[in-house]
Every structure is written in C-alpha cells, then in structure tokens.
TrEMBL record:
Protein's gene: queG_3
Annotated SUPFAM superfamilies: alpha-helical ferredoxin (SSF46548), SCP-like (SSF55718)
Source species, domain of life: Bacteria
Keyword Iron-sulfur: yes
Protein name: Epoxyqueuosine reductase
Amino acid sequence: MKTVFDQTKLADTNDHPSIKRYNERKASTAPQATGSKLNAVHLREMCLALGADDVGFVEIDRPALADQKADILNVFPWTKALISFVGRINRENLRSPARSIASHELHQVEERLNHAAHALVAALERKGIRAVAPAAGFPMEMDQWPGKLQISYKPIAVAAGLGKMGLHRLLIHPVFGSFVQINTVLIDTEVDEYSSPLTYNPCLDCKICSAACPTGAIGTDGVFNFMNCITHTYRELLGGFSDWVENVADSKNGAEYRSRVSDAETVSLWQSMTYKPCYKSVYCMAVCPAGDEVIPQYLADKSKFIETVVKPLQQKTETVYVLPGSDAESHVLRRFPHKKIKRVGNGIRPASIAAFIASMPLGFQRHKSEGLCATYHFTFTGNESIEATVVIKDKTIQVNQGHVGVADVQVNADAKTWLRVLHKETSILKEIIFRRIRIKGSMKLFKAFGECFA
C-alpha cells in the first residue's frame, strides 16, 4: 500500500512543546560565527581535568595522517580534528613478574581513559560539538578480523606530539616513557592551535626491550616480528582464542582435550574471559628506561636496573607460545632454555588471496630464510585473479604487485585451493598432484619458501 506523506501533520508539529522551546532558544541566542574554533588551552584543561595525563591536538588533514584518514573518516565522517591523550601507567605494577598485577594495571588505565573519553564527548556535546570516542583496546568490529579492526592510535599520538615510536613499536612519551596507554576522540570542530611532533625520539636504543622479549620479536637491528609477538602475548585474545576453540572441537573426549590444553591453561582462559584478559608478556614496555620520569633509575645504576627490573622477567619460569618452526621457537631454545615452549596456532588465517599477499611481510620468519636468495612469481586464478612477486634475499622479504623481474620459481594456483592449503584443509602435495597448484622451477626453492613462514 502506498503511504501518503501528510504535510499538514508535519506543519502541526511546530506547536509541539519541544519544538517551541527550541525555536525560543534559537531566537534568544546570538548565532555563532561560522567556522569558530575550539580554544586549545581550554580544551587541554578540560581533558586533564577529566583524567588524561597529557593531551595533544591534530588536524584531520595533517600529512602524517594521510594513510589513516580514510579509516578515521569511516568512523566519523565529520572529523575535523583529533584529540589524542595518554594515561600514565604505574611502573612497578607493570614490572611485576606476576602477570595478574601487570595485566590489571593495564586494564585499570584503559578503563580510566575510556571514562575520560566518554566524559569528554559528553561535555563537548553539551557545547554543541559533535564528537565520538572510538573503542579503546580491542573493538567490537570483529567481522573485519583478521584485518584492521580500529583506528590506529599510535600515529595519531605521534602527530600530536605525545611521543615517538621506540624499537619495541610502542609509543614512548617524553616524560612518562613507555608507561602510557593511548586514547583518541574525534571532533567535528577545528582547534585554534594544533600540536607539533617531538623533535627527538625518547628511545635510547639501549636494546633492553629486545633482551627482555621472550619470543625474540624485537630485533636489535630494528626488525619486528609481528606474528611471534601476537602469538604469545595475546594467546588468550583474538586468534589465540579461536585456536583454543579448534582444540576443543578437534578433541574426541576430555582426555584428548587435556592432552592438548593443560588444566592451568583452561583455567587461565576462563579467568581472561571472566575478569578481562591476561597478557602473557608486556616485558618490552616494563623494562624500557626511556622518559624523564623513568630514566633516573637507569642512569643512577645501570647494573642494578638490569638486576632488579630486567632479570626477574628474563629468569621467570613460564610457558612461551610459539608457532611451530618459527624464529620464536629457536629464540626460546637458545636464549631462555628454562622457559617451556608450547607449539600452538594463532588463529590468523587470511580470508582472501589479497589478504594473504598483504600479510606475508608480517608472517615472514627471517632467520629461517638465511642463505635463501630467490624470486617467486605467483599467479592466482578462479574467484581471485591476482599476480604478485615475492623476493627473499639477505633475510628480507619484498612483495610487489604483478610479475617483476625474472622468476626462479613460478606458482600457478586456483585461489580457493591455495587458501584451503593455508587453512590446512588439504595438503599442498595433493593439490600439486591434481594440478590445482602448478610449480615451475626448483622444488627445493619452493619448499624453502614455505619454511620462511611458520
């Protein structure tokens, strides 16, 4: 049935009490100048009063945020400026070998910043300014997993002058050091004065974070292994949880489940689900000596700092979760033989060939590639038609779109079949026999390629 829109009823709403009060307020209030800006000094005072420990402001068109702009506008299309703020973390809590104390500290600061962001948005709304506070920590847009799930707070904080990225890929505040958490509020109004980035990096390049990392994810040469970090630190979050679910699904009975997952691990997972997650390691943050508030203890007696801050974490007997055959596994065996290794999956499975290609640098195990120098041409057909070139040389990986240079190995594969191999739903040998995957060139080099990814 066609609905007829009654213009008469619409006109009658002008007599509604709410509309009448609005019109009265509008008539009695002088209109604000178009394009008015928020005062940075007052806005900063507001943020600090609501619980932030430091704050900075960035315009949406800052060149440093060019690669983040689309994500920001996707969340709040009216964004004109961003308010970045940090909350200080209590150092001794984070340094405790007891992961419950360290994790609880992180959760407390995260909650404080969430409350500050919520209160700030409410205060701005009362002033007629539209603002949103994206979810801090892990957001709810999990339909995008394993892709990007939220706005990246770190580059915003760097642009806002709240710190620089350290060797450990964490924000280092000039005063509080690595002992901060970050939050961001997006607003639809410009600010009259924006913050400038720091002119120096507080990171001391001391390599202590690298020495403390149980998985070897932080290379002393600046290379960071994302997969090794996330597999251990976030064992009970994100993909680690889905890996646990598969252990449950694959177990025939309780006895088989217990052979896969210890009682302590089951209870730990219950604890994380019930009382917020327990991070298996934030040692890189805990041992960092950078920042004006932190550095005195380090400079006063470096040997004592190592003995009292770093070694308790290095010497802790604990389980380190690693991907089978990964650089992390080799690192634990070599550097921390007193720690227990447990081979696990991390639940990260590319949902498309495009995602697989994009994720290769993240999953690359560079030490496993030692001595390998080869160029691979990939041609995917079927539901995804994509060509890519992968060059592995000098323990580095380079991924390019299309076919570049001369290939040592050519791989032609049906896209769906390749993903099924990655998801371990079929074997690559079987698919090569049935010619759904075809290899031209050295099979030895092709095998070496696979060994570069755990």
